[in-house]
Amino acid sequence: MDTTSQKSPPPPGKREQTKLQNRQLILAAARGVFAELGYGATTVRDIIRATPLASGTFYNYFKSKEEVFQAVRDEVALAIRPRLHEERMKATTVEEFIGCSFRTFFEFVADDRVNFRTIRPDSTRVRMDSPEVVAGFDELRNDLELAIAKGLFPPIDADFLMAAIVGVAFEVAERMLQTGSHDHAAAAEFATKLFIGGVRALPAAAEPAAITATAVGSAG
User: For residue 162, which of 134, 184, 189, 188 has the smallest C-alpha distance?
Assistant: First the structure.
């Protein structure tokens, strides 16, 4: 089949363009309001007031504050995930894998502080992990499992290590914002040395059979 003869899909019509523009207006307004007021204090009315749209228009695109918050989190996750994965795939040592993960994330936070404040907006530590955020966690765990299979890491628990990396990354990044620090390189160096000093001391992950036997013994 001659693919050169295939026509490109027609550009979106005026109605579709308007819908897309309205959705982006709402998301842009939400990012600013969440960053300024924090998730807990923000209301749908605050978001609507930050747009030129009529109040009813919001509900044509989002049902609630929670839904628009998740959409914003998805956009942020989609912006950073490819960069993180690409850097991790280049790593040939534990140090490179851990270092590039923190460095890439902290660079992103330093360059786009509004978006980071949007996804971790206030002291409520709200956790509403959207599909793309969860996919990002899964991708990190998969990359860790591949690195373990390649021998970069000792045979440790990839799920626990994923959770630890995510936790340190978000908390250190938040501290960067609170202190007004722009030195993402220093933050990455600190987090990397913290992990490298501890990773080699971690116990090997238990085999599934060993875990089952332990659980049975505890139950008895």
Answer: 134
